[in-house]
Structure formats: structure tokens, C-alpha cells
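Risk register update: the risk that structure generation would not scale has been downgraded. Supporting records follow, first protein first.
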Amino acid sequence: MTQHFDPIPSPHLCIVSIHSLVEHEYNDIQRTLPLAKRIEAEGLLKNPPIVAQLEGEQRYVVLDGANRTTALAQLNYEHCLVQVVEYEPPQVTLSTWHHLVTDINLESFTQEITNVNDIDLHQSDLLRARAELARRELIAYIIRSDNKVLAVSSHHRRIHDRNTVLNAMVDTYKEKGGLHRAVADNMDEARKLFPNVTALVIFPNYEASEVMILARDGELLPTGLTRHLIQGRVLRVNYPLSELKSNESLEKKNVKLQEWMQKKNVTKEVRLYAEATYLFDE
């Protein structure tokens, strides 16, 4: 029997102005400075950030790698090597991370969120909360460590306004305790991994168009929300930073990049792994 697979497109690598890169969510500032020091010491850009071009513009939304682009900007680089992708399946699948919050007093955590303007916090049950979030009647729901479920709603309907409220909610806890990413709303499993868990905060699934329009309009989603699965992600490029930092024009740098890539292909240094892979040196 003949098997058919979705083709994985050849990687589109190019060098762009760092000022043309637009973030879509708040990045982890605590990681940026150590990363900048490491990049500068190594003299290489190991993994290019993943970007999607805004329609009709010469701007690119950073889907993955915002800490790298921020680090390069802090190091005064004018240009950045990126991988441009089509922001749609099968190349990119968008899902959502949830927040696993630890080391905050449970009642204080709840009260801080209750005090956020334009938020309504009311008790619910897990099944109802899941259904209401799927219908976008909620902006989130919370499972407390005592297993109480709280539905989080807002009267706003515009995505920009709802995003403002969501950021205000996340701001109440993101720097006061531990913040970890989770993929499910299972408190029992969370408690096994983090006995000091305070709560799970569960967010809705977003559409790529929502991510792009918020980024285009200069608004950022809360940190650690979007989860992008990339088919054909480029890793271990190890591109010399000296090539990015040179005084040559952007056009000349891209010509040299293409020559560099052709040489890599000729010498068979580029290899595609189509299977799921574990990396132990990230």
C-alpha cells in the first residue's frame, strides 16, 4: 500500500532588519541578559527565530525566539537571521500553554485577581468551565489547589480589550511566585510535580489571525501562552554572528547566506529528521 505524507517545505532562511521583527507576547526578561552573554561568547546564532510575515508589510511576527531577538537587539545588532514560515497547518500548528502557579498564598492569589478591573470571578465546575471557555464566554478559568474551579469572564468583546484584561490578571501573579507551563487542567498531576502548587490558570485556544492582529497593532499576549509546533524547524544552524554584524548591506548579507546554505547542501551537512525528537542539550 502506498502511503502519502504531507510534504515538509524546504526551510526559508533569510536575514532581515531587527527593527522589522514584532513580538506577539511578553518574553521572559530574566532570560534575556544571560542569553545575550552566551550568544556573544559563542559568536554563533544556533537556532534562528521563527517568524511569519505580516500581510502586505515588510514586518515579521516572532512566533518563537523572542528572547533571542531581544538579546541581539540589546547587543546592538541591526540584522537577524530568521526562518520564515507559513502561519497555518501543516507547517505551523497553534495551541495554548496554561499557567501552573506555585508559592503564592491561595486566598491572596484569588483576591488579587478579584480586584482586577473588568473581571468577574465566580465559582463553577470543571465541565461547565471547559465548555464556556471553548465558546469564548470566558477569558480563562482557574483550578485552585483546593480543587475549587473559578470562571473568569469580562464584559468586553473586542479581542484587544479582552487581552488587556487578561494581561492585568496575569500581572497579579507572574512575578510573585513560580510560573510554569502546563498542557492540561489536571490538578492531581500538577500536585505530583509541584506539591506547592497554588493554581492552574487555563486559557482559550487562539487563532493565528488573532495572534497576528494583536502583534500588528502593537499589543502583546501574556507571557508563555502560545505554543507553536513547527514542521521543518531549522536547528543547529550555528550561523556566525560576524556575518550579521558586518557593515555589508542587507542584500549582500542575504546573497552570502544563500551561498553558505548551498555549500552546506553540497557537503551534505543538512539533514531532515521527520520523526519526533528529544534534545538533551537545550
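Supporting record for the second protein:
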Amino acid sequence: MAPPPKFDVKRIPAQPHPGPPPIPEPEIIRKFAANEDVMKKEYDEYSFARTIRIEELTDPGGKFVMTGVVYTKPDGERTLRVEKQAESSLKQTDFTLEDVRIIAQLPLFILTTEEIPNYTFTYAGQDKLDQLNTYVFQVRPKQLSRKRRFFEGAVWVDDRDLTIVKSYGKFISELAGNGTKLPFTMFETFRENFQDKYWLPTYTRSDDFMENEKVGELHIRMVIRDTDFKLSAPGAPPPTTGNANEGPGGGTSQDPQKPSSP
């Protein structure tokens, strides 16, 4: 599986105190929200291949790999169609396809104009991701709900296009846990540039630890990689053949390019 864009991972201090950005903070937020509106509309029009890998980072360790296609059904629901039986060589754990599916259903963190009022934003300074200069904002929900998850973490906003290029954080609600026996909580999502216009989420990874009877504290990693983006007509079947299993999922886009300097 190809590696993500070579962004340096830098954690944000709990209470940042940077100087003000060169552009007023409300203006940055307003513009990246407007870009998110355009991006989401574009993103929802595409189907793509999805690979989910869970790896035991111990010796001996193994992997769990699932591949499928994400597309939109005629009723508008985003669906993950599993194309073949999941492959597993796990040595220390026993995850199921349903465990992985539920994790893959976690909502994308897209800060559209409609979502902005639900959050509090704190400017945390500037950071450099490869050749991109970015503004970093901490993001916290104003209130929680039992009916939906909100994002809590940070976003990196390109200083030229004022669009989100990376996010790091967790999805929270009034209910504890993520609905599976998988321990993953913190997710780092990288975006890639499409047609020199849109930065779409294509690579998510998460590292965590779980107690294991055999090895004690077990380090495991999950990577979700989306590739082979294709424009899809509304309600069109996914680009696959043969029998497959369907289940809820999410995602989409077009011909991507790795993040590069402006």
C-alpha cells in the first residue's frame, strides 16, 4: 500500500499562544468552509477503491486486509461493496469484517459552512507540511449529542488556497466507544490534490494499543487507503463484477495528485 503524503506529524500544544495570522481568523475559517462546500459536492460524485489494513506491530504479528468499492446507491446512501473475502494472517487478535466495516463508517471530517456553527476554533500557529505552508486550528464541538459524532482535534489549512489539507483527532459523542472491539480512537487523515482544484481525503491511519493475553500490551495500526477514483452517474452500480457483499461505508473523488508546492 502506498505511503501517505509526506507530511510531518506535529502535535498541537494544549493551549497554543501564537501571534495572530496574517489574515484575520474569521476570514480564514469562512474561506476554508466555502472550499469545503465545493469539495464535498465534488467528492460525493465519485466512486473509488478502498483498502483497509490492520497490522499487529509485534513479533510474531500478522495483517487483516479488506478491499472493496465505495459508491452511491440510487437512494443516495454511500455503500462499501466488499469485492472478495477478507485476508487475515493475524496472530494475536481476531477481528471480523463487521468490526472493520463499522470503523470505516466513521464520518469524514468535512467542515462545511453548515457545520461551522457547531464548533469552536482556536488558532494554533503556522506549520509546514512538505512544500505547503499551513495555518493550524484546534477544533472542538460546542456541545455533544447522543445522535451523532463530532470531531475534536486539529486541522491544517493551506495558506494559499485556504483549504484543509490534513486533520488529526477523534470523533466523539455522548456515548462512549466506537461500537466495535477495535481500540482506535485518534485518526490522522491526509488529503491529496485533485485537478489542481480540490483537496480530498484519501488516506487515514490510526495507531493504538490493546491488552492481549499473549503479548501484554499489543501495538496495532490501521490504514484506510482510497484510490482509483471514477466519476459515477447517480445510482450507477459500482465498477465491479461477480458476487459481492454490501454494507454501509463512505467516500469519493477523481484523478488525484500528491500534495506539492503551490
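The CA atoms of residues 49 and 176 lie 31 Å apart. On this basis the risk owner (M.S.) recommends closing the item.
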